[in-house]
Amino acid sequence: MSLLQITKWNYERNGLQHNQELEELLWAEESKEFRKEVENYLSNPLNKLEVVAAMIKEFCDCNFVYYGNIMRQLGNTKVVDRNFEISLMNTLLTEILI
Hints:
Structural class: mainly alpha
Shape: elongated
Helix content: over 70%
Number of strands: 0
Number of helices: 4
C-alpha cells in the first residue's frame, strides 16, 4: 500500500486527527503480532513459507500504523525528525504527481 493510500485512509477515518493513546495501542498490537511470527519462524522449521508470508503481512500492518501515525503528526518535530518529514512529504508528492 502506498503512502498516499495510507494517508487517504486515515483522512477518511478521522480527518488525520492524532490520538497518542490509540497510536500506542495500535503499534503495540501490530508489533507484538510481528514478533509472534518471527518466533514462529525461528521455532518451526517445517512451515517456513507460511510463516514468512505471515511475517510479511504483519510487517505491512506495522508500516500502515507507523506511516499513518507519522502523517497525523506532521509538523510536530518533537515526535518526528524534520529530515524524515521532508522525505515523507517528497514521497507523498511523488505518488500524487505520478
